[in-house]
Amino acid sequence: MTPKADGACRTGITDLAKLELLSVSKRFGRLTAVNDVSLVIEDNELFCLFGPPACGKSTILRLFLGLEAPDAGKILIGGRDVTELPPADRDLAMVFQNLALFPHMSARENLAFPLVARRADPKYITTRVAQVAETLHITHLLDKVPAHLSGGERQRVAIGRALVREPKAYLMDEPISALDARLREEMRVELNRLQRQFNHTFVHVTHDQEEAMAVADRLCVMKDGQIEQLGTPQELYNTPNNRYVARQLGSPPINFISGSFDAASGLFEASAMPLAAVAVKAAGHGTAWLGVRPEDLSIDAKAGGAGSVPAEIYEVEPLGAITIVDVKVGEQILKAQLPGQPTFSEGEPVYLCFDLAKCHLFDSGSGRRLATGLTAVARN
Amino acid sequence: MAAIDLKDLTKVFGSVTAVNALTLSIPDKEFVALLGPSGCGKTTTMNMIAGIEQPTSGSICFNGVDVGHVPPGRRGIGFVFQNYAIFSHMTVRANLAFGLEIRHEPHADIARKVAEMAALMRLSDKLNRTAARLNVNEMQRLAIGRSAIVRPDIFLLDEPLSNLDAAFRAEMRTELKHLQREIRQTMIYVTHDQIEAMSMADRIAVLNLGVLQQYASPIEIYNNPANLFVAKFIGSPSMNLLPCRLVTDGGGNRLDFGAAGSIVITDPQLLAQSRMAHNSNLVLGTRPEQLELRSEDGNASSLRMTTTFVERVGARTIVHLEQNGLIVKVAEKNGYRAERGEPRSIILPQARATLFDAESGRRVQDGDH
Fold first, then answer.
1. Comparing B157-166, B179-188, B308-317, which segment has the lowest mean pLDDT?
2. Contact with chain B for residue A321, Cβ under 8 A
3. Cβ-based burial of A134 (10 A; exposed 0-12, middle 13-18, buried ≥19)
4. Given Cys at both, which of A75, A139, A277, A314 links A326, Cβ 3.0 to 4.6 Å?
5. How far apart are CA B327 and CA B321, in angstroms?
C-alpha cells in the first residue's frame, strides 16, 4: 500500500477504477442469481444497483469482491481481468449492512484496523484516521467503543472503516437500510458528499427506491438476475423501459389503466372508463396499459372535457406537504398526488383529470413502453 | 364499542422507564396511531392496553370501566402483529373461520362472514389455498382479516406493514383505512413510520423516550408541531429548523441568521409569536415545500445561500442549500432546474413559519414560561 498524503487527490491514469462484468452468470443450485449480465461502472461515479430481494444485486457485489466465482463470463477491474484473482488482490473496500464493528475496540481502533492489518506506516495511519473521521464528522467519537455509540454513529464508523483504505472502489451493500427514516434521509446526502470528496468509484446496493434515486449518478434496475434498465435516475423515472421499471420507481406507485390499442391510428381506449387518447409513433397492437403517475393526476369539481373522467373519492391520505387521494373510477382505484392540504369527503363525486402529455403506454404482453406523451380525443 | 382512557400510565423495566405518566383519551371508533422511534414506549403502551404487560402505575379504562384486573382474553381485543401469526398448514378459509368456530357460531353465519371478509381482503379466489402458499402481501391481508372477522371492540396493530414492499404498503394503507371505516372499531396502530401514521390515523400520539410529545390530528401536528422533536419527526423531507437570534430594533423584530442574512418579521402572526419569546435564541421552523427559490437578490424577507446538492427523487426535486453551516432544504417539482454551486435567494413564507425556543425546544406560545 502506498501511503498518500491526501486521499481526495488522485493522480495518474493507472488508478482508473472502471468495474466491468462481461456476460457474467452465477447460479446457486437451480436458482440463476445473475443471468448473463454485462455492465460497465465508470470510474468515479456513484453507481446504484436497485431491485427487490433476490434480484441479483448483492450477488453482483460479491462477484466483484471475489466472494463468489462466476459460472460464466469475465470480471474486469480497471481494465484488468480479475476473474481468477482472490478477493485480497482485487483492491476493493466493502461496507456491509450489518456493521460488524469490533465491540472491544474504540472507534479510532476500528477505523485504523484495515490499515494496521496491512502494516501501513503508523504515522500515515494517524493522519488518515484523523482525516476520515473529520470527513464523517466523528472526530469527537473516536475514543468511544461501539456500545456507547448510537445507530447512526456506528454506521458512520463502519463506513469510515472502509474509507480509510484507498482501494480502486468502495462497494456498499444496503449501508443505511438499518437506520431509521430520518437518519437515512441525512445519510444519503452524506454518501453523495463523501463520494465527491473521495473522488472514487462507489457502488451502492439498495432495495429502497427513494434512496436509489437520491444517491445515484446512474441507476441500474434489476429483476430476476437481469438488468431491466440502466441510466440516470431521471431518465428511468421519466422514460421507463417497461411496466416493471415504471412501477419500481416512485411512491405511491404509477397507476395502470387497461384498454385497447390500435397501432395504425395510435388510438388508446380505456376499457373501464370513458378515456381515449392518441399516441404518435407507437408500434404494438391489441391491448395496452396506460401508465399515469399520481402527480400527473388532478381533481376537479367540474368536467374538464377530454382527458377527464367522472370519479368518486374513496380515501384521503393527508401527508402535510402533499395529499394522496384514492379515487374510484368504475371499479378501479387510482392514486392521485396533490400538492398541499386539500380536503375532500368520502364518496364525493369529482372529475379526475389526466395530464396525458406525461402519460405512458405499455404493451400488455411484453410490458415494454410503446410511447410517452398522449393527446386526448373526445370519445363517442 | 370502546373508548379507551389511559391515566398516568407508567411502566418501568429495571432502570428504564419505558412509559412515563401517559395520559391519553381514545374516543370510540377512532383510528389512533402511536408513533415514535424505537424505544419510545409505543409497543409497551399497546401491550398494556392488551393486558400483556401490567402497568407499574396508572390506570386503563374501557368505556369508563377500569380493566386493570381483566385478563387479556376477556378484553375484547383483536391483535395483528408484524409476524402474521397465522396457521400456515390450514387453508385461508379455515384461518378466517377459526375465531368464529371457537365461539361456536352457526355454520351459516360463519360461511357468510368468511365470504364477506375474503372479499374485503381480496382473498376470495384463494380460500382453498394453504396459508403457507400465499405470498407476503396475501399473508398480511389474511392476518388482518382473521383478526377483524371476530369484530373485536378494539383492534391493535403492531407495525403490520413493515414487511411489505413499498408499492404494496401504499395500497394497504388505503385498504386498512377503508377497513376501519367499514367495521367501525376502535383501532390503535403502532408504527415508527410517520407516513403511515399521517395517512391513516384520525389522531396521532407522538411519543419519545416514554413521554407523550403531542396528541392531535395529522394536519394539526404537521402544521403546528408542539416542539422540535415533533417538528423533526413528522414530514419528509424534514422541516428546516434554523437557529437564529431575535433582534429588536426600532420597534420592529428581526431574525438574525448570521452569514445567511436576516429577516425582518412582517407577518402579524409571526410578529405576535416573536413577542411571546422569553429568550432571544430561537429556532425558525419552515417546511421544505413552502420555501421559494429565486436566482436574483431577494428582499428583506429572504436568505442568501448556495446550492450544495440536488436530489431528484421521482415526483420531487429536493434542493439543498448552505451558508456557513446553516442548511436549508427546498422541495420542488420533478424536472426543476438546479445545479450545485448556484447562489440563490430563499423567500420565506412568514405566515406559515413557526418559532421554537432554542433552550426548551418548545414552540413559542402565549403563557409559556
1. B157-166
2. yes
3. exposed
4. A314
5. 6
Integer Cα distance of B138 and B118 in angstroms = 11
pLDDT band at A11 (very low <50, low <70, confident <90, very high): very low
341-370 in chain A: CB under 8 A from chain B: 341, 346
Parts of chain B belonging to CATH 3.40.50.300: 4-232
- What is the pLDDT averaged over residues A259-285? 87
Pick from B194, B312, B335: CB nearest A213? B312
Q: What is the pLDDT of residue B79?
A: 80
SS3 A380: coil
Residue length, chain B?
369
**CATH architecture, domain defined by A13-243:** 3-Layer(aba) Sandwich (3.40)
Residue A280 burial class via C-beta count within 10 angstroms: exposed 0-12, middle 13-18, buried 19 and up:
exposed
Across B160-178, average pLDDT: 82
**pLDDT for the residue numbered A135:** 82
Q: What nine digits make up the cell of B98?
A: 377459526
Q: What whole-number percentage of chain A has pLDDT above 90?
A: 67
A329 with A273: CB under 8 angstroms?
A: yes
Place of cell 406537504: A321
Please report the number of interchain residue pairs, chain A to chain B, with beta-carbon separation below 8 angstroms: 112
Q: In what order do the strands lie in the sheet with A349-354?
A: A297-300, A349-354, A308-318, A322-329, A332-339
Cβ atoms of residues B284 and B293 within 8 Å: no
pLDDT at B367: 62
The CATH superfamily label for domain B4-232 reads: P-loop containing nucleotide triphosphate hydrolases (3.40.50.300)
- The band of A162, judged by pLDDT with boundaries at 50, 70 and 90, is confident
Residues of chain B with CATH 2.40.50.140: 237-357
User: Which stretch of DSSP H or E encloses residue B197?
Assistant: helix B194-200
The CB density around residue A181, as the number of other CB atoms within 10 Å, is 14
Q: Which residue has the higher pLDDT, A329 or B184?
A: A329
Domain A254-376, CATH among 2.40.50.140, 2.40.40.20, 3.30.450.20, 1.10.275.10: 2.40.50.140
Q: Which of A182, A233, A324 sits opposite B199 (nearest CB)?
A: A324
Q: Are residues A317 and B177, on separate chains, in Cβ contact within 8 Å?
A: yes
Q: Is the pTM of this model over 0.90?
A: no
Does the B237-357 domain belong in CATH 2.40.50.140? yes
User: pLDDT tens digit string along B28-60?
Assistant: 999 999 999 888 999 999 999 999 999 999 999
Q: What is the DSSP letter of A164?
A: T
Tell me the average pLDDT of chain A. 89
Q: State whether residue B13 is helix, strand or coil.
A: strand
- Cα B213 from Cα B205, distance rounded (Å): 7
Q: Do A368 and A242 form a contact (C-beta atoms < 8 A)?
A: yes
In this predicted structure, what is the pLDDT of residue B227? 97
Q: Among A187-196, B28-37, B278-287, name the one with the lowest average pLDDT.
A: A187-196
Chain-centre distance for alpha carbon B340: 33
**Domain boundaries along the sequence of chain A:** 13-243, 254-376
Residue B238 confidence (pLDDT) above 70: yes
ipTM exceeding 0.95, yes/no: no
Whether A322 sits inside 8 A of B287 (CB atoms) is: no
- Residue B321 neighbours by CB distance under 10 Å: 25
* Partner-chain contact A214 B312, CB within 8 Å: yes
Q: Count CB neighbours of A11 within 10 A.
A: 7
Is the predicted pLDDT of residue A3 greater than 60, yes or no? no
Closest CA of chain B from A301, distance in Å: 22
Given this model, what pLDDT does residue A6 score? 40
